[in-house]
Design a protein that fits this description.
The protein has 286 residues and is of the alpha+beta class. It is built from three helices and twelve strands; from the N terminus they run H-E-E-E-E-E-E-H-E-E-E-E-E-E-H.
Length: 286
């Protein structure tokens, strides 16, 4: 599959703050574990590392963040925490603010425009109301281009993935690829075959998952050890060949000495024979 990479701000809608719902993402649930299972955390971590790799290659001006407080209004402040209204998506892609790779928060307007892409991994706490009902209105008014829902628990959606794309009238269009995966306008694909995989949409090449990276490192280490063993074997063979070459050289030198000695003996015999012939001729003369 091929896709045209668009700049995230192309055709972006300006935010509308009038009438936008007010939430303080975690204030009401600070005592509740949002991640109910290992899969929730694993999916978030996988998205972070794989999307980070994709953005580094295609959109270095963007930053992916997980569970980062994104403040979108100045008022009203939370009576519980005193915070401004904010969302805290499981993953979101925002404008990079300078060289800060580890921001502690993101304030719309101050740090950059609204997120271009947000993702929520549905949990028992958020999967029935907040993520599928409350947040789409907020994201639409903010002008978020894409909103991805991931149902790792298999309880809330007919399928594991659902990508919502914002229309010009600020309604959402549900989008799924033929294989049940989703394709972002930022040039990556996400598929789910029991586990999440993030791919480069242009090439189809998957980004290395954290667990796969460990396996790859182990495989590389095994290959390295095999190469080192082969190198040692080649070095031993080289040393054997060198020893044989030196032995051959010594034999050649011995043969050359023998040949020289034989030639000297032949020359001496030839000289002796010549002397005898001259003496015989001299004896024959009167």
């Amino acid at each position: 599959m091929t896709t045209t990479l668009l700049k995230p701000w192309e055709n972006a809608l300006p935010p509308i703050f009038d009438g936008i719902p007010v939430i303080y993402e975690d204030d009401e649930h600070e005592d509740i574990l949002m991640g109910e299972n290992v899969g929730h955390y694993a999916a978030g971590g996988l998205l972070f590392f794989c999307l980070q790799a994709h953005l580094k290659r295609h959109h270095p001006e963007l930053l992916v963040a997980c569970n980062l407080n994104c403040y979108y209004l100045d008022t009203p402040k939370s009576k519980k925490s005193g915070r401004n209204p904010y969302i805290s998506a499981d993953a979101m892609i925002v404008q990079r603010n300078g060289d800060n790779e580890k921001p502690t928060s993101y304030i719309i307007g101050k740090d950059g425009p609204p997120p271009f892409f947000v993702c929520e991994i549905l949990s028992q706490l958020s999967g029935t109301i907040r993520d599928p009902i409350e947040k789409p209105e907020i994201y639409a008014k903010l002008g978020v281009t894409e909103y991805l829902l991931i149902d790792e628990l298999g309880r809330f959606l007919p399928q594991p993935l659902l990508l919502k794309k914002l229309r010009p009238d600020r309604t959402w269009e549900d989008s799924l690829d033929d294989d049940g995966g989703v394709t972002s306008r930022l040039g990556f694909r996400i598929v789910h075959d029991g586990e999440l995989h993030v791919l480069d949409a242009a090439t189809g090449k998957p980004y290395v998952r954290p667990g796969d990276a460990e396996d790859e490192v182990e495989s590389i280490e095994r290959e390295k050890q095999a190469i080192e063993r082969k190198a040692r074997s080649i070095e031993r063979e080289k040393q054997t060949v060198e020893r044989k070459a030196r032995a051959m050289e010594r034999r050649n030198e011995a043969l050359e000495r023998s040949n020289s000695e034989a030639e000297a003996k032949i020359a001496a015999l030839q000289e002796e024979l010549a002397n005898l012939r001259r003496q015989k001729n001299d004896d024959k003369q009167p």
